[in-house]
Amino acid sequence: ISDSDRDKSCYVIVKKYNGVYWETVIEGVSKAANEIDASVYLGGIDNETDIEGQIKLIDEAIESGASGILLAPATSDELVESCKKARESGIYVALIDSSINQCEFDACYMTDNIDAGEMAAKEMLEMLYDAGNSPTDPLEVGIQLSSDSSQAMVNRVSGFLNFWAGNAPEQWEIVQDIRVNGGDTKKAQSDASALLRENADIKGFFGCNNTSTVGIVNTLFEEERTDVVLVGFDLADETKQMLQNPEYHAVTVLQKQDQMGYLGMLSLNSLIKGEKSEQKYFDTGVIMVDSDYLMANAVS
Question: Can you give the pTM of this predicted structure?
Fold first, then answer.
């Protein structure tokens, strides 16, 4: 990203090397890299389940004597030791998109995922009512996520379930079989199809991340299930198509992942320059996106 031959070098290690979401993260990183005088090396894994791949990339950064690592952790548990090792080697570690389960990092820029999960559940209930569902009828909502070892995913689900438990009618339930797709859109699609087959009362889906949402969208389009409400995450082209189709009931929680990359990179630069902050967590915020939002903001 940067051609600078200065003595500061930052390693950016993302969770998935391809896909619109991560391309947007990298755009934010690039913007910051152009503003600061540092060499930036970009690495990533092809699949969110490739934890060993991320550990290897962190090891490479340590061995090369990096000044800082900007990491989007694929798991909250198994990268703790690697981050600890990096910091013990004098390397600053800033996290984006998701956190790890111990404080072996210097800053973290991400969505407040519990809050985002609660917002998603509130939106889901409103849309289910708007779609004509009665509080006295049996109704189920299916949930999909890409990883159950990612703190971000787990927090989104727990925020959703907490709000649901306190606000949903008694007859309305969450399908116990919460599906995990490992960031694979095809698996997300077949899981959504299976959940619809196995649970006759499904009238809603919560997709906790981009791949889950796209898989659900593809299934609902394919099976023409205009009766099923979707609350998703992020804004892939497929999701946009559903939001713009008046026959379907859908919204999506849009993260500000470009800000994660941008602010995470600037924060790493500040740390390398010796500017410390007491605050570790920074909420980058979300926007609830529906067809009106797309029209108002000319998103095509």
Answer: 0.85
